[in-house]
Inverse folding.
């Protein structure tokens, strides 16, 4: 289907007047709330869209996938962003999901540790607390500081479903719980010896070491864990501006932007 995206700034004045009268404003604000997974990706897509879309789109800090479901489900927002599938009950409330890209789940550590690759068994033991010093896996004599996420976190759910040893893993009680992806990244960055997890982004490598697992980097097709980033909406609040952004977000241009920032193709 051809994109409904229209470059308003390239239109003559008469056409601009028509669009203004038709949609109420030349640049309506459209806020897309939700997960922190892939936030930099969607912000890049929003920036490109804002060059000439029907609305000015913003992608604010994370309120989680559950926050997006609540906001769109209650019709307080037209669009939301999620990193987990909608449940049957949520679909029954009229929510619709539009998958955009896959985001590999990354295990990352403080830059000073000097470890670049771990086996899946070593990662499991670290997050279980049975390995508590980096010298046990080839690193320095330094206490391991585990940073985890809440039990409902989308990346944790994907790790449990796909990473060997994680399905029934009891995370160590000697850990700090981060409430958002940004919090997890910042906590690991600031604390020597820290290890955490979250959605993969090439930007992580600027401040952290992103581990290969069993010899596979997150961008490798053999790397097992990934979440699917999707937009959600309800039919009765999917107006012209929401539809226009959905069309752009699934366009070839948006796909290129997502892939440049670490997104992987959707599975058939």
């Amino acid at each position: 289907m051809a994109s409904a995206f229209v470059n308003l700034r390239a239109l003559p004045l008469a056409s601009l007047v028509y669009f203004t009268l038709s949609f109420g404003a030349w640049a309506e604000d459209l806020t897309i709330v939700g997960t922190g997974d892939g936030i930099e990706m969607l912000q890049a897509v929003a920036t490109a869209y804002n060059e000439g879309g029907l609305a000015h789109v913003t992608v604010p800090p994370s309120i989680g996938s559950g926050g997006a479901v609540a906001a769109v489900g209650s019709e307080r927002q037209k669009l939301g962003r999620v990193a987990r599938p909608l449940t049957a009950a949520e679909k029954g409330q009229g929510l619709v999901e539009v998958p955009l890209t896959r985001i590999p789940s990354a295990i990352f550590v403080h830059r000073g540790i000097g470890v670049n690759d771990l086996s899946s068994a070593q990662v499991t033991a670290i997050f279980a607390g049975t390995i508590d010093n980096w010298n046990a896996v080839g690193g320095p004599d330094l206490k391991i500081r585990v940073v985890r996420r809440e039990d409902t976190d989308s990346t944790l759910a994907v790790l449990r479903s796909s990473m060997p040893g994680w399905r029934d893993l009891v995370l160590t009680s000697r850990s700090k719980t981060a409430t958002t992806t940004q919090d997890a990244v910042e906590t690991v960055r600031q604390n020597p010896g820290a290890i955490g997890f979250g959605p993969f982004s090439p930007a992580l490598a600027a401040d952290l070491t992103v581990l290969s697992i069993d010899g596979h980097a997150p961008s490798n097709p053999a790397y097992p864990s990934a979440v699917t980033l999707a937009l959600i909406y309800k039919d009765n609040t999917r107006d012209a501006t929401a539809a226009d952004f959905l069309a752009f977000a699934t366009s070839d241009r948006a796909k290129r932007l997502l892939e440049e920032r670490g997104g992987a193709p959707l599975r058939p």
